[in-house]
Design a protein that fits this description.
single chain, 336 residues, Rossmann fold, 12 helices, elongated
């Protein structure tokens, strides 16, 4: 696929805050810039998608694609609103971007709905591209939309439960908060139920519609006497995970996550999850191949395979939990 070189106007600025959404939709000062022009859309301004995007940019830079010199970038977030993903993609269409990076499932869905089949779409930070309509498992050549390629990062929820069970061998009941309206969340919640059943663990669920409902949901699970909180890929809890950690800390309940940056939060006991920089870099290498003329149709989806294990001894001490020494020895990072 040879990418056309078109002269277009590029939106100035690289801010990712949701407050910049109006600028993302075309209100703001524009300036010309070098080609190719890449449109980057993520759902929210939060550490996991931000780290993924940075990895993508680092992979492009390593291949000689430097912003302002040999390429231009439109960076946008949807402020957590699915409808905004369509609005931003329509702007990318007007600006005739040469390639779209969809960071997450809602941006991927919007890209496939709005962008023509001639525009390459690379995705990352996505656990269920199949549910989004990008292709069929495992996403090999001929198994996906011809202009779409990316990385598959279904969160390791089984390993998350194993981690919780290793710290508490008697664990029988965990609490899960998620927004069932999010396709990724529903997919991973079903996977969590399946993995929990295999381990004779009961999952008590609290559905939420947005991040503002998360603190109340966490308190409701405390009343149901959950023995631990677990996390899946879900935008509501990504934005409000600190609230879950706070409730866990107050009630001395372990909190586990699949997002490595969460280990920095007081109350988060342990994490096992994908390295988001690696995710973004893998997507970036796919994008480089496309920019250099290779067709996405001849490329396979790339599953993530390597996880990071992180443990917080500070939280363990605060909630009175003993972390096995063997687990500490295996951890990639220990917060003391």
């Amino acid at each position: 696929m040879t990418l056309p070189r078109r002269r277009v106007l590029v939106l100035g600025g690289a801010g990712l805050a949701g407050s910049l959404l109006l600028k993302a939709c075309g209100v703001g000062q524009r300036s010309t810039g070098p080609r190719p022009l890449i449109g980057v859309l993520q759902m929210v301004d939060a550490q996991p998608p931000n780290l993924t995007r940075l990895g993508f940019e680092q992979a492009l830079a390593a291949a000689g694609y430097r912003e302002g010199e040999t390429m231009s970038v439109l960076r946008r977030d949807a402020a957590g609103q699915p409808a905004n993903t369509t609005v931003v993609m329509q702007q990318f269409l007007r600006d005739q971007v040469d390639l779209v990076l969809a960071v997450g499932t809602p941006p991927l869905q919007a890209a496939m709905q709005v962008m023509p089949a001639t525009t390459p779409v690379v995705f990352c930070y996505c656990s269920n591209p199949w549910g989004a309509g990008a292709g069929t498992p495992p996403g090999g050549v001929g198994q996906h939309r011809p202009n779409v390629v990316g990385t598959v990062g279904t969160n390791p929820v089984g390993k998350e439960l194993d981690l919780a069970r290793e710290i508490n061998p008697q664990l029988k009941q965990v609490g899960l908060i998620f927004n069932p309206a999010e396709s990724n969340s529903s997919f991973e919640a079903a996977l969590m139920r399946k993995e929990a059943a295999r381990r004779a663990i009961t999952v008590l669920e609290q559905p939420v519609g947005n991040a503002g409902e998360v603190p109340k949901a966490a308190k409701a699970l405390v009343e149901q006497q959950v023995e631990a909180f677990v996390k899946i890929g879900d935008y509501a809890t990504i934005e409000a995970f600190a609230a879950i950690c706070k409730v866990g800390l107050e009630h001395r309940i372990p909190v586990y996550s699949v997002d490595p940056p969460d280990i920095q939060l007081p109350g988060c006991l342990a994490v096992i999850g994908w390295n988001y920089r690696d995710d973004g870099m893998a997507a970036g290498r796919l994008a480089v191949r496309v920019l250099q003329g290779e067709s996405p149709a001849q490329m396979a989806f790339q599953p993530l395979t390597s996880t990071d294990l992180l443990v917080s001894l500070a939280t363990a001490q605060a909630i009175g939990v003993t972390v096995p020494e063997d687990l500490l020895q295996r951890a990639d990072r220990v917060v003391r």
